[in-house]
Design brief:
By secondary structure, this protein is of the alpha/beta class. Helix 2 packs across helix 3, helix 8 (181-199) crosses helix 9 (217-228) and helix 16 (455-465) packs across helix 17 (492-502).
């Protein structure tokens, strides 16, 4: 059976005259056919051979998403090298730590400024840093050797490492996740199967839009999945113009993070709240009709309100995603059920996925052939076992489990036990076999009463009541009760109203008794978020220690 890389190169050879990748630049596309992409790959492979690199050597790749990024990635893998993808917006200190750990032979960068940024935080002995090589330095040369290189990858065994993907995590300690050929071969067979189910008997190439950085495992798996299929993958080049880029690419599907979908929902609701009274009234009636119908309590006039809402409002919103949209795919964090239902109401299914870098990005994925269960992240994909262990922890095993952490045998032994990978996530499974992620075990707040509290569900409930809040952070470890830090331009009265709405539905030990509004933004740049937007709770607790202490000095409400 061919491995994932052999499948990709075979697909590119069948697509010599067809566009497989393109970038959006304003209103224009820069495209690459299968032949043009393979030409770039050959140039990079020739450079690697001239540089004397051997199978198993590491090379770092630092650049925004681009056609050239994909060419370098494919070339490195085809030569049997281990790719270390780095994030173009990572801090210099984090980039230096990752490269010191992985010791790449070369650092390929898209431009000189980015390369200089990557070595800013290196030790005083700059000679120990990997040699920087510009993309243009490789692609603009015309070596004779490139013409002799075949369009097939070098053989590799299932156990051969393909990549080391660094995940800084909420602790800020970078860990290199080692993924092997067998991991990717199994995962791409599963994603291809799901995408076949989504596209059905569609005869045209998949139209896919993409904006998430390729150094994230799920983003990279989507890239490889598209290259394995008859697809046209359109890459975003300006996140400030996402709505226009989506409209121009007119995708069948694309990968999302919950933050974007939440923002779209709030934007639509805010825009409708400013429309004329008849439009506001129709939207409210149509939404209420959909909710009743969805819960099996449809009234006599609900079909009328729904038909009017779909014709005059819902269809106009859906048009913003182009005429071909089949579904949105969402991962990286749980999506609020209300947001998933909002898109369902518009006629846009949101397929949720769950996984970690250590599981080759995916463990579960909604089946597009059956109705989704809002709040859940789908069933385990083929060949993967999942179960609940102690402390409601989700543990998994299967051919998608990573080979281990680079240079961290103790960490590897801690999470890989008896063939099971311990995710650190708390979860539960429904009668339909759909999984729901409750929170992270290490985020559990243990009150001095002995009660264990997962903060994430409470934070989500409060955030739903406070659309203007940037982040909600529950604190209280070792304390007598919970409090909340609210980041963003939010009035105290609004926060109190949100707590008054949320607290009555919670048991006494999970109710939030006090709060503080902080004006400082939580960002990856100031170390309070990870690069993919997750809270760094220890750093937040340290940064706002005085605000937290003052909440507990005040009498609780």
């Amino acid at each position: 059976m061919p491995n994932f890389l052999e499948n990709i190169f075979s697909q590119l050879q069948r697509s010599l005259g067809r566009v497989v990748l393109r970038e959006i630049h304003g209103e224009q596309f820069v495209s690459a056919t299968g032949r043009e992409l393979l030409d770039q790959v050959r140039h990079v492979r020739a450079y690697l051979r001239n540089a004397g690199l051997r199978a198993g050597d590491r090379c770092a790749l630092l650049a925004p998403n681009s056609i050239r990024w994909a060419a370098f990635d494919l070339a490195l893998m085809a030569e049997g090298l281990i790719v270390v993808p780095l994030y173009a917006r990572q801090s210099p200190a984090e980039l230096a730590a990752m490269m010191r750990d992985s010791e790449p032979k070369l650092l390929f960068v898209s431009d000189r400024a980015l390369g200089e940024l990557a070595t800013q935080a290196w030790s005083s002995d700059a000679s120990s840093a990997p040699r920087r090589v510009l993309f243009d330095e490789v692609l603009q040369q015309q070596p004779v050797l490139a013409q002799a290189i075949s369009d097939t990858p070098n053989p590799r065994a299932d156990a051969d490492l393909v990549t080391i993907i660094y995940t800084s995590g909420t602790s800020g300690e970078p860990k290199g996740v080692c993924l092997a050929t067998g991991n990717l071969t199994h995962m791409l067979s599963c994603t291809t199967e799901r995408l076949d189910q989504l596209m059905g008997q569609n005869r045209e190439p998949d139209r896919v839009f993409h904006y998430a950085p390729f150094n994230f495992a799920a983003s990279w798996v989507l890239l490889l999945s598209c290259l394995s299929r008859e697809s046209v993958l359109t890459l975003s080049t300006d996140l400030t113009k996402l709505p226009d880029e989506i409209r121009l690419s007119a995708p069948h599907y694309f990968l999302n993070v919950p933050t974007l979908l939440e923002r779209v929902r709030r934007g639509v609701e805010d825009a409708l709240s400013k429309r004329a009274a008849p439009i506001r009234s129709l939207f409210a009636k149509a939404r209420e009709a959909w909710q009743r119908q969805n819960s099996g309590r449809a009234g006599a006039f609900d079909p009328l309100w729904l038909a009017l809402g779909r014709k005059l409002i819902f269809s106009k919103i859906k048009e913003r995603f182009g005429p071909h949209l089949r579904a949105l795919i969402c991962g990286s964090a749980p999506l609020a059920p209300e947001t998933q239902q909002f898109f369902l109401m518009l006629g846009i299914p949101v397929l949720q996925a769950y996984g970690l870098t250590e599981t080759t990005a995916i463990c579960t994925l909604d089946d597009p052939r059956v109705p989704v269960e809002p709040g859940y992240v789908g069933q385990a994909i083929r060949g993967i076992e999942m179960k609940i262990a102690d402390n409601e922890e989700v543990v998994v095993r299967g051919p998608h489990i990573f080979a281990g952490y680079w240079n961290r045998p103790e960490e590897t032994a801690r999470v890989l036990r008896d063939g099971w990978f311990h995710t650190g996530d708390q979860g539960e499974v429904s009668e339909r076999g759909n999984w729901r992620i409750i929170g992270r075990i290490k985020n559990l707040i243990i009150l001095n009463s002995g009660h264990n509290v997962a903060p994430e569900p409470i934070e989500d409930k409060i955030a739903q009541q406070l659309p203007a809040a940037q982040h909600v952070v529950i604190v209280g470890n070792g304390r007598g009760y919970l409090c909340a830090l609210i980041a963003g331009a939010v009035e105290p009265q609004a926060v109190q109203s949100a707590l008054d709405a949320v607290n009555p539905d919670l048991p006494h030990y999970r109710q939030v008794r006090n709060f503080a509004v902080v004006r400082e933004a939580l960002t990856p740049e100031n170390g309070l978020l990870t690069v993919n937007g997750k809270l760094r709770r220890d750093a937040i607790n340290a940064r706002f220690a005085s605000e937290i202490n003052s909440m507990y000095d005040r009498k609780p409400s």
